[in-house]
Amino acid sequence: MAIRHLIADMDGVIYRGKSLIDGASAFVQRLLSQKINFLFLTNNSEQSPLDLKRKLEGLGVQGLTEKNFITSAMATATFLKSQRPGGTAYVIGGGGLINELYNAGFSITENNPDYVVVGKTSQFNFSMMKKAASLILSGSKFIGTNPDVIDPLEDGYEPACGAILASIEIATGKKPYIIGKPNSLMMTIAIRQLGAQPDSTIMVGDRMDTDIVAGMEAGMKTCLVLSGVTKPDMIQNFPYKPNYIFNTVGDLYPEHL
């Protein structure tokens, strides 16, 4: 079946840090001109769709709307609302995550919350780790927006949500339930938002351990780009492989897939 829908990661695929990846703007214009139904999906829970739209506009990418984005914060809020409508949460994370939980009807509290929800934030400190560990050991359910240990930047990498989760996991002996990639739950939410079927959708990402495995397990075709975390010599370390491999999305033409 021809590819009619596309889901693409952002960090390491469209940009690295504050720098647009070569060919990314032309790739987006191809999607728009060919009327490909697409979503930009990110495991980063710090930013809202509006933040992401404005970021890409600032990098020179035009023509997008907030409906072109889905974040792990949105997927987390959707999942938690389905599990416990009107629930409560202690949150470690940015404004994007807190806002999505509020929109889903959750209250944010440190007083015996139903969940401890953890996303990426540069403000993480010992006091937050101590509070989260105490609440989890007292019975709050441990939720992580995504497992990424590092995120790509224009000049290297920085610690990500998985590094924060690891500290709390070691302190409590409890593993978080992860909502974002590689959990195919996030892919299912994205496919539903597109109104698509998996066999006519392709997942484009830079990480074999999250993007590619999540797309594969959701029944989609997969495309690895080498502009982010996964490098060519790393691919053979995995027991699965992508359907396509390109240096950047600048080399990707949907009509040829």
List the helices and strands and how they pair.
Layout: E1 5-8, E2 15-16, E3 19-20, H1 24-33, E4 37-42, H2 49-58, E5 69-71, H3 72-83, E6 88-92, H4 95-103, E7 107-108, E8 115-118, H5 126-137, E9 141-144, E10 150-153, E11 156-159, H6 161-172, E12 177-178, H7 184-194, E13 201-205, H8 208-217, E14 221-225, E15 244-246
Parallel strand pairs: 1-4, 1-13, 4-5, 6-7, 6-8, 8-9, 9-12, 13-14, 14-15
Antiparallel strand pairs: 2-3, 10-11
Quick description:
The protein has helices at residues 24-33, 49-58, 72-83, 95-103, 126-137, 161-172, 184-194, 208-217; strands at 5-8, 15-16, 19-20, 37-42, 69-71, 88-92, 107-108, 115-118, 141-144, 150-153, 156-159, 177-178, 201-205, 221-225, 244-246.
* CATH homologous superfamily annotation of the largest domain: HAD superfamily/HAD-like
Structural class: alpha/beta
- Helical fraction: 25-40%
Domain count: 2
Order of helices and strands: EEEHEHEHEHEEHEEEHEHEHEE
Unreliable spans are none
Biggest sheet architecture: 6 strands, parallel
Number of helices: 8
